[in-house]
Amino acid sequence: MAFCTKLDPSSILTSQNLIKLSNAKISSSSSCSLLNCFPFVLSRNLRLKNHGSSLVVKASSTVTDPEALKVFTVPTKPIEGQKTGTSGLRKKVKVFMEENYLANWIQALFNSLPPEDYENGLLVLGGDGRYFNKEAAQVIIKIAAGNGVGKILVGKEGIMSTPAVSAVIRKRKANGGFIMSASHNPGGPDYDWGIKFNYSSGQPAPESITDKIYGNTLSISEIKMVDIPDVDLSHLGVTNYGKFSVEVVDPVSDYLELMETVFDFSLIRSLLSLSDFRLVFDAMHAVTGAYAEPIFVDKLGASADSILNGVPLEDFGHGHPDPNLTYAKDLVNILYKENGPDFGAASDGDGDRNMILGREFFVTPSDSVAIIAANAQNAIPYFQSGPKGLARSMPTSGALDRVAQKLNLPFYEVPTGWKFFGNLMDAGVLSICGEESFGTGSDHIREKDGIWAVLAWLSILAYRNKDKKLGDRLISVSDVVKEHWATYGRNYFSRYDYEECESEGANKMVEHLRDLISKSKEGDIYGDYVLQFADDFTYTDPVDGSVVSKQGVRFVFTDGSRIICRLSGTGSAGATVRVYIEQYEPDVSKHDMDAQVALKPLIDLALSVSKLKDFTGREKPTVIT
Length: 625
Known about the structure:
The protein is an alpha+beta fold and 625 residues long. The protein is built from 20 helices and 30 strands. The strands form seven sheets. It has a seven-stranded mixed β-sheet, with helices on both faces. Strand 6 (122-127), helix 5 (133-146) and strand 7 (151-155) form a beta-alpha-beta unit. Helix 4 (101-112) crosses helix 5, helix 4 crosses helix 7 (207-217) and helix 12 packs across helix 15. Residues 82-221, 254-357, 366-472 form the Alpha-D-phosphohexomutase alpha/beta/alpha domain. Keywords: Carbohydrate metabolism, Chloroplast, Glucose metabolism, Isomerase, Magnesium, Metal-binding, Phosphoprotein, Plastid, Transit peptide.
């Protein structure tokens, strides 16, 4: 027998004040006391949110299984704008704190999955430590329990990097996991928050699932939840609620264990022990602050003062946790000062991106993944048999293509979004991959991995210097890069980001470009460049045959130069326009030019062809990489 309670208009449901039920009045043909019908009402003092109309909560009057949790439903309505981008759903924090906003998306996710993918199963929950994560974790836990999940494994304080979530999913054979992060976007009450779901292989949910989630957000009518106390995330251990349990775990241990199987830590330690080698790692007050000391200091012997901004903060110390030349300027200044450190690195909000620097030298992400791939077999034990294959996102420079060609390895070009690498990895044809947006990784997990990239570079440097004696000149980051250019040629590359543009103008710019390419033909002249082809990139997955289209407008010229324009799906407000410019230079004597100088004719052409200023009103980019 079921009973209904109508709640007065003063009662509210928010993500922070999860389901507080008060002033409840029972309406039923049977007589019963409030305590008998709804013991959870008085024991938890739960409230539900309402905007002027009564809400109905249904609860079973009897529980046949003494260990079963009482599940109740919260009526809700669809909320517009919950379509995920390339890396989950991202909005301003205040949007997620609105009535049922987060809860709707989480329930829509469960409505999109086959029950066997989560019922009585294990899910992982972690995040980057940003504002609202702790409150959101309680919402997710209670909705997961309401939908029949058996166990949630959550990082202490709700913290677990995106790469670590992927690693834990794979090690613990979990059904999947939630990642609470807006990645490299700012955090705090006035800034960004995000959520995404990774599947049992540890990879981001494919578009077939995210499309279903979006569809279900448009038709959702109720949210399933349970009445349990908030979980104490500050202490390790297991809390049982009948057949449902929550385990708070160390967010570092499983990930560190995996890293020790991938890399030769003793080799890296020998490099860091050299008195004339200095390392600086900037955690940007983001999630890798929880990993930096255990890995770089405790395990590898770096000095404690080599870690900058090593304490994760909810607002990232009022910073923008995006490891690039603009937002990691403090680290850049340290590496470019006289007699600066030999090696510098930074990672982003959720720990999946990286920036690599040498003394007075910046390594582009496109070059970084190519150099890691070229040196992996010798320097990294995980690849001692050689990589299976290489891949990059379409906008990333062609430097990796040349390594694949020389090493006679399979090569793949995919759309932006790490999920597109996952199928190739699961099929056993891809080992190392990267994106120009500071993402690098391998098939050890199914996410890009900032600390992995740092350890890969330290491994390369350690291997190249392993026979050096005290006082010998060490092979530097710039030495490694310039030797690579001498072998493979240099792909000059730059990216112009125009953040938070008006969406209407940005979309009109893309439509203008699509119209232009529809009329273009091979041999068309663009300034000093001859067009080979122009298109809007379409990708057919070689594993499952799925097709994605409209992934970026590109102009490819006969000399290998490229201009690419696309809108990014990683922001939370407006549109981010990205313009990518690339030119290949085989002549070693021309490898030391500044990229902006070498690319200026092509940059000018890109801005002219796109009419970016006309459509967006922007005079200059927000970020130049």
